[in-house]
């Protein structure tokens, strides 16, 4: 995934997009079970070949490593205090917290961004 693709995908979500089919996993579900659940989702239509992202900040790093060991290839998002989105090591992105949070929060409050119920 190219930097422009990531930024474009995030912008499309901001511009009236909605998140669908994002079920909440059970509290206390083990990481191996979570990884298997995600593998099952991405192993069938319409998600075969789709790109997904994981938080790579702090404790997210070992979780992303487990996803990779399971054969899944997430785009890893490292949340920073920076000013611009930058790509590192092919599948790792440094993304400013303000880019992820502030604009999305205001769009959720205004009703422009909606998350479909699971």
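Sequence proposed for the structure above (118 residues):
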């Amino acid at each position: 995934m190219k930097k422009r693709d990531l930024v474009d995908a995030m912008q499309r979500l901001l511009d009236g997009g909605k998140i669908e089919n994002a079920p909440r996993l059970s509290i206390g579900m083990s990481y191996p079970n979570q990884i298997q659940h995600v593998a099952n989702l991405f192993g069938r239509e319409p998600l075969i070949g789709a790109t997904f992202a994981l938080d790579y900040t702090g404790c997210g790093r070992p979780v992303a490593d487990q996803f990779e060991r399971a054969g899944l290839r997430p785009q890893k998002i490292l949340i920073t205090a920076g000013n611009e989105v930058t790509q590192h090591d092919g599948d790792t992105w440094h993304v400013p917290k303000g880019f992820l949070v502030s604009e999305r929060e205001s769009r959720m409050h205004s009703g422009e961004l909606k998350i479909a119920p699971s």
